[in-house]
Amino acid sequence: MVDAKKLPQVPETILKRRKQKAEIREKIKANKVKAAKKAEEKKGKIFKRAEKYVTEYRKRQQDQLRLKREAEKSGNIYVPEEPKLAFVIRIRGINQLHPRPRKVLQLLRLRQINNGVFVKLNKATIQMLRIAEPYIAWGYPNLKTVHDLVYKRGFAKVNHKRIPITNNEIIEENLGKEDIICMEDLVHEIFNVGPNFKRTTNFLWPFKLNNPTGGWEKKTNHFVEGGDFGNREDQISALVSKML
Amino acid sequence: MTARPLVTVYNEKNEATASQIKLPAVFRAPIRPDLVSFIHDQISKNKRQARAVSTEAGKQSSAESWGTGRAVARIPRVRGGGTHRSGQAACGNMCRGGHMFAPLKVWRRWHRRVNVAQKRYAITSAIAASGVPSLVQARGHVVDNVAEIPFVVSDKVEGFRKTKEAVSFLRRSHLWADVEKVYNSKRYRAGVGKMRNRRYKQKLGPLIIYGQDSAIARAFRNIPGVDVLNVERLNLLKVAPGGHLGRLIIWTESAFKKLDAIYGTPSTPSELKKGFVLPTAKMANPDFSRIIRSEEVVNAVRRARKVKSTPKVHHNPLKKFKLMAALNPYATVLRDAAHKKQKV
C-alpha cells in the first residue's frame, strides 16, 4: 500500500475517517429528505381529519337544532340525549376532608385545588360525583371549552412526567395505537366520548386551572343555592373560560 | 507489549560489544505506581528509631490541688513557699512546666510488616519502570546521551578499584551529567534537621546493580548520588526512591543475566524466590482509548441512543398562531374563514 521510499502525505486513518464521515453525511441527508416527505404526508392526513371533524361537529349541532325545531312545530318535545361527557373541577383544598369524598377525589385524579378532569358519565361515575359533590364543580362542557382546555392547558403524561404538548409527535407516540395522532383527534375523542376515551383522558395530565376571574360565588354552597359546588350543567363552560 | 528485544552490552568505554542479552521478563511486569508508592511508604517506616518524651516529664512535682473555696482554679498547685514557683499550677498539659497532652510513648507501632508477595511485586514493577526511558527522564535523570535504556555494561566495571576509573567510566557513558545534577543540587536542609546531623540534601544519581560480589562498591561509593546494589538483594527504597518509579539503573552483564533466574519468566518460575511467579497485568492491551475506537469494536457496538429532549416551556397556541398551525394544519383554513366572515 505504501512504497518503501515515501510515506503518504496524509495518514491513512485520517483518510479513512474522512470517507466514513462523508458517507454518514450522505446518509443523514437522505434520511432528512425521507423524514420531510413523511412529515408532509402526515400533515395532509391531519388536515383531512380536522376537516372531517369540523363538518361532523357542525352537522351534529345542526341536527340538534333541526330535531328541536321539528318537535316544536308538531307540538312535541325533543328530549336530547343524556350528556355523556362531564368536566369536573376540584373547588376546595385538601384539609378537613371526610375520607370517602377524599378517596373519590383521588380516584378522579383531582388531588389539588382547581384541578380539572374530563369524566365519562355513567351510573357509576355519577354516583361518585354525588359523593364528592361539596368539593367539586362540574357540568357538561361545550366544544369550545374542550378545545381551549386541551390546547392551552393540555399537558401529557409521558414516562411519569408532565410534558407540554408542543407537537403532534408526542400524541402520536403515545396514542398512535388508538389512531389518535394529533390535537384534533384528542379533542374529538374527548368530546365524542369515543371508545378510547379513558386512555385519552388518562394520557392527559389533570388540567391545572386558575381561580376564576371575577371570583367565586360561594364555594360552600351548591350552585342551585347561589353557590358554586355541584352540577351546573352547561354553565360549566362559562366557569372554565374564566378559569382558563 | 510482551516482546522481549535484545539488549546490547556496552563496555567500560561505552562501545557496543558483540554480546546481546534478551531482555529479562521482569522488564515486562506491570508498572504499578500505586502499589510501589504504598509499599515504599510501608517499608520506609522500618528503619525508624523510637522516640518519646520522658515518662516523668512534667510530673516531677508534688503539686496538689487546693480544692474549692479559695477563689482559684482547681488545678494542682506547687507546694511550699519562698519562691515564685510556689502556688503555681503544675502537672497539666495546659500548665507551664506541666506534661504534654498524650505524652509520646516508645511503644508506638513504628514498623510495618508487608506481605512478601507485595514486596516482590513492587520490586518487579520498579525494575520494569527503570526500563522505560520516558519514566526515567520523568523522574528527573539526565539521560540525553545514554546509549540504551536499560543500560547494561560489561563485567569489567565490577573489577574497578579506583574511584578514578569509576568516574571516567561514567563520563564516557554520558552518565556524568546525572552525577553533575547531584553536585548542583546540594543544599541545606530546611528545618531543624540541620542540627541533627542531616545538614545537607541532594538529589540521587544513577544506581549500579552488580552480579558478583566484588569491590565495586568501594570504587563508586564516594561519587555523590551513586548507589550500588547486588542484584540478589535489591532494595525498593533505592530502586524506587521516594516511591517514585524510574531510577536510572546501570546493570552489569552478570547482574542482567541473573534477572531471569531470580524473577523467572512467564513460562519458568523463579529459581531463587520460592513460589514466585511474575505478576500479570489486568489488561493485556492497556491502551483503552485505542481499543474502543478500533474498527472491530466500533462496528460491533450499537448506535448511541439520543435522549429525547423534552420540551419544558409551554406557549399558548390560542395566542400564538404559528404554534396553532403546527399543531393543527386546518387552523389556517378556519382562521381565513373567520376573517372573511368578519369582513362581511
Automatic annotation (TrEMBL), chain A:
Transmembrane segments: none
PANTHER family: 60S RIBOSOMAL PROTEIN L7, LARGE RIBOSOMAL SUBUNIT PROTEIN UL30
A Pfam entry, by short name: Ribosomal_L30
Family annotation (NCBIfam families): uL30_euk
Keyword Metal-binding among record annotations: no
Family: Belongs to the universal ribosomal protein uL30 family.
Cross-referenced InterPro entries: Ribo_uL30_ferredoxin-like_sf, Ribosomal_uL30, Ribosomal_uL30_CS, Ribosomal_uL30_euk, Ribosomal_uL30_euk_arc, Ribosomal_uL30_ferredoxin-like, Ribosomal_uL30_N_euk
Protein name per Swiss-Prot or TrEMBL: Large ribosomal subunit protein uL30
GO BP, sorted A to Z: maturation of LSU-rRNA from tricistronic rRNA transcript (SSU-rRNA, 5.8S rRNA, LSU-rRNA)
Domain annotation Large ribosomal subunit protein uL30 N-terminal eukaryotes: ranges: 10-81
One Gene Ontology MF term: RNA binding
The entry's keywords: Ribonucleoprotein, Ribosomal protein
Domain of life: Eukaryota
Domain Large ribosomal subunit protein uL30-like ferredoxin-like fold: 86-136
CC per GO annotation: cytosolic large ribosomal subunit
Automatic annotation (TrEMBL), chain B:
GO MF term set: structural constituent of ribosome
A Pfam family that the UniProt record links to this protein: Ribos_L4_asso_C
InterPro entries: Ribos_uL4_C_dom (IPR025755), Ribosomal_uL4 (IPR002136), Ribosomal_uL4_dom_sf (IPR023574), Ribosomal_uL4_euk/arc_CS (IPR013000), Ribosomal_uL4_euk/arch (IPR045240)
PROSITE patterns, A to Z: RIBOSOMAL_L1E
SUPFAM superfamilies: Ribosomal protein L4
A biological process term (GO) from this entry: translation
Region of interest (Disordered), residue spans: 49-68
PANTHER family membership: 60S RIBOSOMAL PROTEIN L4 (PTHR19431)
Name by which UniProt lists this protein: 60S ribosomal protein L4 C-terminal domain-containing protein
